[in-house]
Structures are given as C-alpha cells and as structure tokens.
Amino acid sequence: MRNYLGIPMRLWHFSLLMSALTLITYNIPFYLFVSSHSELPLVRRIVFIASLAAIMLALNFLVCYLVTFLLRYVGRVLIAVTHIFNATCLYFVVVYNTLMDGSMMGNVFNTRYSEASGYFTVPLFATIIILGIVPAVYVLWQKIDYGHWKQLGISAASALGTSLALVLLNFNQFLWIGQYDTELGGLLMPWSYIVNSCRILSQQHEANAQEILLPDATFADADSTAVVLVIGESARSANFALYGYGKNTTPRLSAMTDVTALPARSCATYTTAGVKSILEYADQSALYEILPNYLFRTGADVAWRTSNWGEPPVHINEYVTRQELEQQYPDCEPHYDGVLFAGIKQRIVGSGNNKVLIVLHTSTSHGPRYDTQYPPRFELFTPVCKSVEEGKENIAGLVNAYDNTIIYTDHLLADLIDTLRTITNRHTAMLFVSDHGESLGENGLFMHGVPMSIAPREQYMIPFIVWTSPGFRTIKNPEREVDQHSVFHSVLNLLGVTSPIYDADKDIFQCATSLK
Description:
By secondary structure, the protein is an alpha/beta fold. It is built from 20 helices and 14 strands.
C-alpha cells in the first residue's frame, strides 16, 4: 500500500473509485428499497436498478471530480468527511430503519449530547471506523494528479451525457419515483443528509426571523384562573390504559372520574414540528406568535419549564431549564422530569396575576434509552431493554421500558392534578398533549420521525388528557378526534381571552358565556 499510495493517482481514477465506493458501500438500503417496491418484471427491474446505479455513479463521479479539482486538498477533506457521515447515516438506516429526510435531519439539529449519547454503542463506533474513518484516511493520504482544465471538461461532459441518456431511457419510471420520492431521497447517500440539512438550516434561518404578531387580545373576565399545559415527549396513546391498553400503565389517572382522555393525533412525527403545532393557532409554515408569547403580551403571567428543546422562540420573562430547577429544588430527584413539577402550587398561589399559564415541556418517553427516563422505583414492568438497538432482538423488553415511562407520566400528572385540587381560590386546569407518538418495533420501525404521509398510527396517535376543577369548563364532545391546534384555542377559552383568531370549532370546551 505504501508504494501504491506514493504514486499519484489521476483525478478521474480517484473520482471513479470514490463514486464506486459510495455506490457499493453506503447505498445498499436504497437499492433494496427500489427492488422491494418496484412492480416491474424481474429483468426490467434489474435493468432499472442498474440504470439508477449508473446515474448515481456518473453524478457522484462528476461532483467528486469538480470538488477535488477546484478546491484541491480542501475538497478532499470534504469528501473524507462525507465518508464518515455516510457510515453514520448507514448505521441508523440499517439499525433503526430511519430515513435521512427533512424530519430526521430536523431531529439531528435539535438533539443535545445528553440525548445523543444514548445512541453511542460499540457497533456504531465500529461502523464509523471501518466504513467511515478508514476510507477518509485513504482520501487524505492518496496523492492525486489533478490534471488540466481540458480533462475536467471532458470528464464533466461524459458524466453529464451518460446521466442524461440514462434518465431519458428510464423516463417512464418518473411517476414511480415521484410516488416514493421521500423514501428514495432519504436513503440516497450522501445527498439525503446534505440536501435535507440545507433545507433545515434554511428553515431555521427563516424561523429566527421576527415572528408575525397575532391580533391584539383582551381578557373578557377577571376570574382568577391557572392553566398548566404539559407537553409530552414521544408518548403514544396506544400504551395508555386510559385509551384501552391492556397493561395498567395509568393506574392513578384511570381512577380519577373527572379526567378525560380525548382521541387525538399529532400534526407531525418529530419534536420541533409537533411542539410548534401545539403552540400555534393554525397550521402555518410561517412563524406566527405562539401561545405563551401571545398570552404574555396580552398580560398573563406565563412561565416555561423544560427538560427538552425544539420549541419555537419563547419570548417571556420566565424560561427555566431542568438544571436550573434542580438547583432551586435540591430535594427533588435529579435528572428526571419530576423536578419540572416542583413548587407548582407555590408558583401559582404566589402570582399576583389573575391569569396564569405554566408550560412544562417534558422528555419522559424519549428513546433510545427509555430505561433512563424514570426513577428506578417506577420500573414496574420487567425485564427491560437498555436501548432500542437491544430491543430489536427483544421487543417485549423494549415495550416494558417504554411502558414504565408511561407509569412515571401517570404519576407526574396525577400528582399535578392532586396539587391543583388544593388551590381553591382559582379555577384550575391541566392539559397533557404529546408532541408525537413512537414506534416500538411495529413493521420493523422504531422511535419516530417517519414522514406524515407514510407514518404509522403509532407515531401520530397521541394522548390528549384533560382535567378541570369542579364547576369550571366542560368538554363539549369527548368522543370527537382532535389535533394539536385545539390546545391554543382551548387555553384561550380557559383563560377567558377574547381574540379575533379564536376558533370555537377547535376549542374542546363549551364556550364561556363571556366569550360567545
């Protein structure tokens, strides 16, 4: 190898080698998907797959040639980095059946180390080293004869001509490609994560722009009211006993006759979009003023407590993280969501404002390490798997770990309701809504993030659990399925807010007389 690496390789040889390596090593899931979903006869299917391979080979060759020729060693660094990213993405595609689409890249950009560390396993590092770092070292070490501009022109023309000819020969397959564009785009390395990362960064740039203010609102009454909105993480209604699950995962809530579990679905299958839907008045691509900002500007006392992330920009005076709450309440168990609920009564009673909204953004049911999301005393269903990867071989253990997170959620919500019951000088209400659901091995899928157009029910059917103090609001139709946008309008009702954008159809409660 030493003698070979010491001899400069012509750039078109190097580019062809890199393109072939990318094609063979990182895109096998892509071709398996094409093979399994194409309805062409066997021979035509083979020809179609071979054509796709040739197109990818030519285009990857072209990009590698251009990047390396124009940027020289910097271009080689970029190519080396893509090998490492390719290997990492390949691991998650194979092990977790994920797609590197916009949803998944949104999750990546909004994941903190504390969550990502749950994925750090020996197989992951082995994959990165063997399929990522080793090729990357070769890319940086191999000497290259970059050639001349004329050779660049010939190579580029050849690659483009070959690609165009093959595209025209397979033009009749464009309808099929359009049918599966999300899946194909999410499996094609390295373009899946490169293109979708650019899309996410562009969206985040737009999101950081000034939010669009909603029409001014007023309070229609002077009633003293406190609403606690609990945003769940990765909680699916299928595993709540309140929704008919066979295991008693909600013993305390199920025993409360004044608790209602509404059938509900999320508007997305990943945190950023799910939380945005919970907090916005309607399904909007633009960034409009979200519920806590709107109520704070209107004059309510608003607090946000979080052990999670991914929410739109929150513009209020009191935004507190779990770490800050752990310092404020040292007697609470650290590292768990229980600390978000600490001192809630004192916070409400001590407010001098008639209208109080407290948002608790939890992370209780987030994977891949469900077993780390609850205190040991809540491990009632055993045995448990330590990770989603381990759970692929032991679905029952994975479900047990997940169900224990629901047991813990039941404890937190029941304690919160019991606390609110003791506040007698205010109307009080609690709403629990999850950002999205979760797959636990059904159809070979795990966790969440599948595009809504093809997402399984487990990833979008969510709990929407409601409690109000006696004599307060009444739910008008407990059987009707709602979505996350009902939260905005229902909270406006609870707090007696009059607003031009209030939508009674999205409100789960009977409309107060003063708001009619």
